[in-house]
Amino acid sequence: MSRKQSHKMHLVKCKGCAIQFVPKDKRQKFHSPECRTAYYMAHYGSPSTTKTCANCGTLFSTTKPKKQLYCSPECREEHRLKLQDNLRARVTAERNTFLGERFAAMERDGFRCTFCGKGVNDGVVLDVVNDNGKLRTACSDCKTGKEFIGKEAI
Fold it and tell me: For the chain, which has fewer Cβ within 10 Å, the N-terminal or C-terminal residue?
């Protein structure tokens, strides 16, 4: 007989109910998952805790107080979707506000570069740059020159 075969024939006494069984591996101490659960419940008890659902606010009982935040999978999914919607709304608002501020700066400057005076009628591409906390309209040449030559910090 090989070593593996002799090990498989070795009988072990179940730690929970004292029934003799053949283990599937050398670490197995219980003959069934039900016996293991009953043993740990008898020795350690159920650490049931009452918590409040993070989504709907109802009270629920759990044996995993650190992990379980919601009373049901449906509440967990609903809360995830709410967070996702809030994030999407915040990003959209920031984007719209920024675009509105850029357009307002161009409109204030008369759609002309504040550095050289060229406008959209002169065939230049205008952009908005942040000049010491103030948005200013700049053509592509002035923006490139300011960034790479370093006339002023943008």
Answer: N
What is the C-alpha separation between 114 and 149, in angstroms, rounded? 17
Compute the half-sphere exposure of residue 99: CA atoms within 13 Å on the CB side of its CA: 6
Task: Read off the pLDDT band of 2 (50, 70, 90).
Answer: low
Cβ atoms within 10 Å, residue 63? 10
Burial string for 91-113 (b: 16+ CB within 10 Å, else e) reads eeeeeeeeeeeeeebbeebeebb
Q: How far apart, in whole angstroms, are the C-alpha atoms of residue 112 and residue 136?
A: 10
pTM of the entire structure? 0.39
Domain boundaries, the chain: 1-45, 47-108, 109-154
Round to whole Å and give the CA distance between 59 and 52. 5
